[in-house]
Amino acid sequence: MTLKFKSTRGNKNLITASQAIVKGISEDGGLYVPCEIPKIDFELKKILEMDYKELAYEVLKLIIPDFTEEELKYCINNAYDEKFDTELIAPLKSASGEYFLELFHGKTLAFKDIALSILPYLLKTSAKKNGVNEEIVILTATSGDTGKAALEGFANVDGTKIIVFFPDEGVSPVQKKQMVTQTGKNTCVVGIKGNFDDAQTAVKQIFTDKELAAELKANGYIFSSANSINIGRLAPQIVYYFYAYAQMVKNYSIKFGDKLNFTVPTGNFGDILAGYYAKEMGLPIDKLICASNDNKVLYDFFKTGTYNIDREFLVTISPSMDILISSNLERLLYHISKSSKITNSLMESLNKSKKYDFKVSSDYVVGEYASQSETFDVIKEVYEKSGYVMDTHTAVAYASYKKYKQKSNDNTKNVIISTASPYKFAKDVCVAIDLKYKQEDPFNAIKILSDIWKEKIPAPIKDIDKREVIHKTVLKKDEIKNFVRDFLKK
Ligand SMILES: *Cc1c(COP(=O)(O)O)cnc(C)c1O
């Protein structure tokens, strides 16, 4: 029997992977999870011989099994091509005695490209398989990187429209410029007065608004999501954990069969959840270290067992991790508790009283965090020691890992998930290396960084400051719903 998916919140309907991809989120507000996490059905050692695409096929066919071989290979081949600036797709680098899995070699210079280059193909294939004829409207809330990666993925894809909401004051100047200059007649980009959580909550409300859905369906539209609430975003991220493991064996950093730790700079908990799935599927992962910035809700949660969002929301130098409500944590809670009743009551408690209690064992995830100054410090330290430049998010993970190691004395080898190119956050990276750049213009910082680092400026952001701004709308939270309605009337 093929693997089915169900909601974390108790809706009893079992659906296929392709149906879950089309729907994005369940009507009851829950997220789709596999009824059972599949185990790998091939000999693990084979991953040492596979390239990225072959590995993607072997892993994806287990977790989204209702796609045919032909369909899946079509999606994979169209995703992982020359859009990436290296055939390796996700190269492993070593610097300063640590290992970095570089996931930023796609078109928007952040790890979101890995999932969002394949999602449009998975989604269109899923729609076709299920006889969905409506035009698919992708609604996406972004803390900076998802938005651009989704726009690049969906721009000019027939039968789709994409609307991206970003916190107007909560993304980096380069991230904002990347989004508001997006071309493609089916794209729409809107600034929100508020933070990422406001944008994400508004989008989730639109998804679960039955009246609006009925109205739009009558006009030939259905909604779907490009956020990591969509299982089609999560599944492709499992692949690179296997890929990293294979590279660690091939460069003799570990022996085949040894356990490996991963440290993951975390926001919405999607990336690290993919690591949890990889482990459950049979990859020898020991610890998953969840790294937070000063918005350390997750660190506090793993330490104390209380998830509490009743606190100040801080805007940091790692904006893609500036999140208080990490959506995908709900999936972990469900898998651990094995109960939609418990998951439901935790989510209700979060809604009503802004917190809940649930203890997660460190066998699953260990929390750590890095303050802003610790983040600045490690960028400088690693650069001076080895010449390697980390972006601000990767630096949060590096600093967190150092703290973890010091406290735990754990000598298991570790891979740091490197989620963005330093060019994307050039200004803060330059300031970390030398305070004299404090007054520098953020776009000029890109050029300065290339002098410091001696690595070519990636094409996608070269001369980005000179591109025309196309999207200028900024809305208050309560205007979002009507805006979506009006946009789809056109
Ligand atoms: C999105 C993002 C993160 C956080 O990933 P989640 O899956 O949301 O936890 C970390 N770093 C960068 C650069 C990102 O774009």
Quick structural gist:
With 490 residues, this protein is an alpha/beta fold.
How would you explain this protein's 3D organization?
With 490 residues, the protein is of the alpha/beta class. 42% of the residues lie in helices and 15% in strands. It is built from 19 helices and 15 strands. The chain has a six-stranded mixed β-sheet with strand order 3-4-14-9-10-13, sandwiched between helices. The protein has a five-stranded parallel β-sheet with strand order 8-5-6-7-15. A two-stranded antiparallel ribbon has the order 1-2. Strand 5 (135-141), helix 6 and strand 6 (160-167) form a beta-alpha-beta unit. Helix 17 (426-433) crosses helix 18. It is globular, with a radius of gyration of 21 Å. Pyridoxal-5'-phosphate is lined by residues 110-112, 145, 228, 265-271, 320-321, 393, 419-420.
**Total number of beta strands:** 15
Please state roughly what percent of the residues sit in beta strands, choosing from under 5%, 5-15%, 15-25%, 25-35%, 35-45% or over 45%.
Answer: 5-15%
- So what's the CATH class of one domain? Alpha Beta
Q: What is the CATH topology of one domain? A: Rossmann fold
In DSSP terms (H or I, runs of 4 or more residues), the helix count works out at: 19
What is the architecture of one domain at the second tier of CATH? 3-Layer(aba) Sandwich
Mean pLDDT: 95
The rough form would be described as globular
Rg (C-alpha, Å): 21 Å
Unreliable spans are none
Largest beta-sheet characterization: 6 strands, mixed
Largest sheet strand order: 3-4-14-9-10-13
Helix content: 40-55%
Separation, N- and C-terminal Cα atoms: 44 Å
What bound compounds does this protein have?
Answer: pyridoxal-5'-phosphate
Class from helix and strand fractions: alpha/beta
**How would you classify the quaternary structure?**
single chain
